[in-house]
Amino acid sequence: MPDSLFRHSALVSAAVAAVGGLMGPPALADETGRTEYMYACSACHGESGLGDGPVARYMNVETPSLTTLAAAHDGVFPLLEVIQVIDGRTGVGPHGTAMPVWGDRFMASAIEDSGRYGAEIIVRGRILSIARYLESIQE
Ligand code: HEC
User: Fold this and answer.
1) How far apart are the CA of 63 and the centre of ligand 1, in A?
2) Whose CA is nearest to atom 29 of ligand 1?
3) Tens place of pLDDT per residue across the chain (139 aa)
4) Is the CB of 43 under 6 A from ligand 1?
5) What gap in Å lies between CA 70 and CA 63, rounded to an integer?
6) Dist. CA 89–CA 60, nearest whole Å
């Protein structure tokens, strides 16, 4: 995603957070997940999660909507499965095929600062915040 687009989404998130602040405590976890999602996922899955990001058309498989994951599982958001699909390192789900393995990517960026053990915690936190964000956008 171009930087300017990312800055734009960051601005929108800030505005949403500001409005949310008027109505109650800001949902900090969701905001982190949303920012991570915009950075790592929206290019393919779209800003609203409908599978219509600008990169989706270059994929040789269809990029799925991520707003119907609960609906596809009898109304229950499949949190663990989603975490494993995003992580990619467990071999569960499709992300080893059309997608970067986010667990490895996040690990690579965290390991220099935090060492292997610390980095693993950061990776899991990032993935969980994205999964929680997805849970919050289910139809
Ligand atoms: C390069 C494009 C691309 C990016 C970036 C991307 N995805 Fe995907 N994603 C796909 C495609 C294509 C599929 C369909 C299956 C496949 O990978 O073969 C998919 C499948 C999925 C699925 C499974 C959906 C289902 O119906 O079972 C989930 C969950 C998912 N992605 C979440 C994410 C998250 C969260 C991120 C960001 C951390 C992300 N994706 C980033 C292209 C992408």
Assistant:
1) 7
2) 82
3) 444 444 444 444 444 444 444 444 455 656 899 999 999 999 999 999 999 999 998 888 889 999 999 999 999 999 999 998 899 887 766 654 666 789 999 999 899 889 989 999 999 999 999 999 999 999 9
4) yes
5) 17
6) 22
